[in-house]
Amino acid sequence: MEGRVKLRRAARWLLCLPRWLLCPPPADRLARRMSQLLVGLVLYGVSDALLVLGGLGLDPWDVLHQGLARRTGIPIGTWTIIVGAVVLLMWVPLRQRPGIGTACNVVVIGTVIDLVLALVPAPHALPLRWASLLAGVALNGVATACYIGAGLGPGPRDGLMTGIARRGHSLRVVRTSIELSVLAAGWLLGGTVEVESTPGVGSTFRATIPVHAPVPVSAPVSAPAQAQVAPRPDRLPVLVVEDQPEIQLLYDRYLRGSRFQAVPAHSLREAREVMTRFTPRAIVLDILLRGEETWEWLTRLKAAEGTRHVPVVVVSTVEEQQKGLALGADAYLVKPVERDQLLEQLSVIVDASVAARLLIVDDEEASRYILRKLAGDRWSDVREAKDGEEGLRLARELLPSAIVLDLQMPGLSGEQVLEALSADPSTRAIPVVVVTSQLPIEPVRERLHGQARAVLSKHQLSAESLLGPLRH
To answer: 139 and 242: one domain?
Structure first.
């Protein structure tokens, strides 16, 4: 008997929307109210997206949505829809009746959030992030006025609070309790958190707490946020793909004073732009970026001929080490990461990627054969280029640990190749041993001093004379 009563209640609840369609508001008011409702919902979606883009704090429910998005890779707007639908189902035992506005609330807001996040790039300068936050808060107020004024049904989350409050509980206590629970769950999942309170209304939790590690106040805010960071000739460029500015600051501080230089990219689009300018010696990759699926990018990176040799260390809150390594990552670290841990892992993967790769550039096949034999079995990967153009291309693609370069070649000469290698930030640190048949050898050595590790005569080559200058 009790089961039949519950079934009738559920059926009555599900029939509310058709009943609204059968008994709509007067025609002269319906169009205006529906337009007002949709404007309010769209503004809600834009408001939430601006708060996410600003990265300075979210409301409790969006903290939960953000945490779920970071854990699963599903966009935050999609999670807004899913959570809204689940909350709406919780109305059934509370005997809450939804309106057409309730159903639209579930679908429209999340859709708009994903659309805005896909079209609008995230600001990185602090003033722009504050502007995004303030614009989001202002739009939220306008959206609330439009939505409530339409009077076509409460949102699923507000309806849950009022439904519980009607059971004899204080609305302020109910709201605070629910938002604290939602906030805690979102924070544990990796969402962004903050607190503010309004007398007589309750608490709203909306601030930024750096979960992974604190960044000193003295750290320059704009240092790593430069879109065009030029690699330094005395350091190895490391592309850091991370959408959270505070984590970019942390990695920049970690790599200072080491042989590595952090080159920031806050999105996959920025990462691709950086890699069109030069090839990094390593990549630090966060799997969960705003609205982007980096697993697919990692797979493509490791499948492409020109980038498969670049070592990648994944640093993320998602504990999916087996998946990351299977897709081509060279190492996998779970946040929070300490400085020594990151530097050690970068050193291991960078050294392993270049320790056994030699590039021989010579237009004569017999000379390449002799040089390969003299190099011996120390190199597990020896590549050959038959002219200067091919040698320069392979040097930029492979980033070998050493290059043996013939000086006299048709087309692009050895000296021109050497100048191009020195001018490219990604190749200028590669040691180059020049071999030549020119005599006398001393003027050549003086001319190339500072550009080549050594200048050797082909008439007096030996394994020791060739390998000696290439030893680290």
So the answer is: no
**Nearest residue to 215 via CA among 257, 259, 254:** 254
Give the model confidence (pLDDT) of 259-288 as tens digits: 899 999 988 888 988 888 888 889 999 987
Q: What is the pLDDT of residues 179-205, one digit of tens each?
A: 788 777 766 765 555 444 444 444 444
Residues 6+ apart with CB under 8 A from 365: 386
**Cβ–Cβ under 8 Å, residues 297 and 239:** no
- What is the per-residue pLDDT across 312-341, written as a single tens digit (0 to 9) for each? 999 887 778 888 888 888 889 988 888 889
How confident is the model at residue 225, as a pLDDT?
39
Q: Kindly report the CA angle at 381 between 378 and 385, in degrees rounded to 5? A: 115
**How does DSSP assign 5-51, residue by residue?**
HHHHHHHHHHTHHHHHHHSPPPHHHHHHHHHHHHHHHHHHHHHHHHH
Strands 292-293 and 288-289 turn out to be antiparallel
Whether 43 and 116 have beta carbons less than 8 Å apart is answered as: no
Distance, CA of 414 to CA of 193 (rounded, Å)? 58
List alpha helices for 120-155, DSSP H. 126-150
* Domain region containing 407: 357-470
69 and 174 part of one domain: yes
Q: CB–CB of 60/204 below 8 Å?
A: yes
**pLDDT-derived band at 355, boundaries 50, 70, 90:** low
Which domain CATH number covers 324? 3.40.50.2300
Q: How many domains does the chain have?
A: 3
Residue-wise pLDDT tens digits, 362-414: 999 888 888 888 877 667 678 899 999 999 998 888 888 889 999 889 889 88
Q: How many residues belong to the chain?
A: 472
* Residue 46 in tokens: 């834009």
Residues 151/86, Cβ–Cβ less than 8 Å: no
